[in-house]
Amino acid sequence: MVRPFLVGSESAKGFLELGADVLRRGGSAVDAVEAAIRGVESNADDHGVGLGGIPNLLGVVQLDASIMDGRTMEAGAVAAVEGFIHPISIARRVMEASPHVLLVGRGAEMFAERMAFKREEALTEYGREFYRAFLRGEMEELGPEFSEDVEYLKEDAARYPMRDWYEKLTEGMQGTVDVMALDSRGDICSGVSTSGTYLKLPGRVGDSPIIGAGNYCDNRVGAAACTGRGELSIRHGTARIIVAYMKAGKTVSEACTQAMREVREMVEDPRLSCVAFERCGGVAAVSTSREPTYYYMDTAMEKAESRSGVWMKI
């Protein structure tokens, strides 16, 4: 039998240990995924998830998340949530305590309040200064601690005219954490949390809270999740397709490669990555734009292990 394990995207570095502790105590895959993602959401130095997320064009941090239980095939998700830093936990409550799968905006916030979640400000001073510099047109003058985010934002600017939209609204950069787990009972869970594309249009929802696009799992097969340009995986149904390919007999590597190949056929220069595992323990990651890094940790390991995926250049 495969030893219980977790797999996470780059943002999960340093936090899979929280989920592994849950699995060692005999906890469920759902508990493990939630624990690991909550750790990332609490990390103010991660500017794409939870606390510390970069705001939208109006200076507001809006968060998305989803979680899926591979045993029951139930799922919960929230989108465009303001004033709460742990959307993954709200999404779990949507799955377990409501008749719905996806709640958005004020409705999701009302639900969170009724479920006794504490209101907390997600916008940090880092995010405020980043946004103020954008308003002033002074992104290049930000200090070295902003350099990585500014460079990443430049890559998105050619596709996404942020200044034009800001002017219209006032008369892409991505940061996402994916965590998937297999527990001692053979149950699988997948979860995703994000603050979405930097300086996005207010109300923009990417693939992270969309079951079948950014997140999907099935106890009988495995799990898959995506990072990058969420609009692409929404159009393609990427996470669901990867799991479907595995169910049809492809290996996890073949399934991920085929899914990314199909995304490349949709647009000339896509930016999308996926990470997935099959229930027998095989793991793979494939990206259309870079060599992807993901993290693996089983219950016998003291620290998560960094692994490299495949950059599908053609």
Describe the structure using short key phrases.
globular, eight-stranded mixed beta sheet, five-stranded mixed beta sheet, single chain, 314 residues, Glutamine Phosphoribosylpyrophosphate, subunit 1, domain 1, alpha+beta, 34% helix
How would you portray this structure in words?
- The protein has 314 residues and is an alpha+beta fold.
- The protein has a single domain, classed as (Glycosyl)asparaginase (Glutamine Phosphoribosylpyrophosphate, subunit 1, domain 1, 4-Layer Sandwich).
- Helices cover 34% and strands 23% of the residues.
- The chain has helices at 16-24, 29-41, 87-97, 105-114, 125-136, 147-157, 162-169, 230-236, 238-247, 252-266; strands spanning 5-8, 63-69, 74-81, 102-104, 176-182, 188-194, 215-218, 222-228, 272-278, 283-287, 293-298, 305-308, 310-311.
- The chain has an 8-stranded mixed β-sheet with strand order 4-3-2-6-5-1-11-12. A 5-stranded mixed β-sheet has the order 7-8-9-10-13.
- The N and C termini lie far apart (37 Å).
- The model has no long low-confidence stretch (mean pLDDT 92).
How would a textbook summarize the main sheet? 8 strands, mixed
Q: What's the structural domain tally?
A: 1
> What's the mean pLDDT score?
92
SSE arrangement, N to C: EHHEEHEHHHHEEEEHHHEEEEE
How many helices does DSSP assign? 10
Number of strands: 13
Q: At the fourth CATH level, what is the homologous superfamily?
A: (Glycosyl)asparaginase
Q: Could you estimate the helical fraction of the residues in percent?
A: 25-40%
- Structural class, by secondary structure, is alpha+beta
Report the β-strand fraction as a percent range: 15-25%
CATH architecture label: 4-Layer Sandwich
Strand order of the largest sheet: 4-3-2-6-5-1-11-12
Identify the CATH class. Alpha Beta
Morphology call: globular
Identify the quaternary structure here: single chain
End-to-end Cα distance? 37 Å
* Poorly predicted runs: none
Radius of gyration using CA atoms only: 18 Å
CATH topology: Glutamine Phosphoribosylpyrophosphate, subunit 1, domain 1
